[in-house]
Design brief:
Rossmann fold, 7-stranded parallel beta sheet, 9 strands
Length: about 270
Amino acid sequence: MNHTSYFQNKVIWITGASSGIGEELAIQLARAGAKLILSSRNEEKLHDIQEKLENHNQHCVVPLDLANLSNLSEITAELLEIYERIDILINNGGVSQRASANDTTMEVNRQLMEVNFFGNIALAKAVLPIFRAQGAGQFLVVSSIAGKFGFHLRSIYSASKTALVGYYESLAMEEAANGICVTIAFPGKINTPISQSALTAQGTAHGQMDRNQSSGMPVCECVAQMLSALEKKKREVLIGRKELLAVYLKRFLPKLFWRIIPKQSAT
């Protein structure tokens, strides 16, 4: 699908924009004529990406640590001064997990919730008054197939991604009358480096490209489906291949689901 007409000149804020899905979102949206605000902790990588984007001068880099957003209100005010509006917030930033519930420390549990949930909704709350004042705005929230069911070595990751669903479904109901829409994306196995930075039980990086990621759907295909759902203002979109069958199995054949899923590889 050609997204150019829909995203042309829209101001879009992307978190987690320095790699994987976030980087590809930036590439495809820049091609569609959007004006991008690129955020992540890796400022150097963001500038590298910005330089390679189409119309790179109309995009900006805003370094952001989702675990420390003390200056968020100032950042949001500055962005509003520069662009005069924000049309779409893509809450994509986050970190995965590769450790059992038993082994994962409470510190790591809290760290992961801080980034994946509290940091995420803090951005939503910062942008929401802008959307309300405009009478329009869209959230694209990147959950995960782990937001549909728990899985080996993903206890707190799954919890954080499930929490996003409850929060944004509620927000969508409350804000529909204000012209605000929410699309929640549930990617399955996507070929991105997410497993490399996933946290182990003690909070160090997993540092490996898992087979599930390396054999997953190409990230360009994943992002094209996300943007299509965003354009159509879908409430949710499942993205992946055969792993998505598990979502339907759990819903319609739960006994079979609980026989099959525990036998699947965690990596």
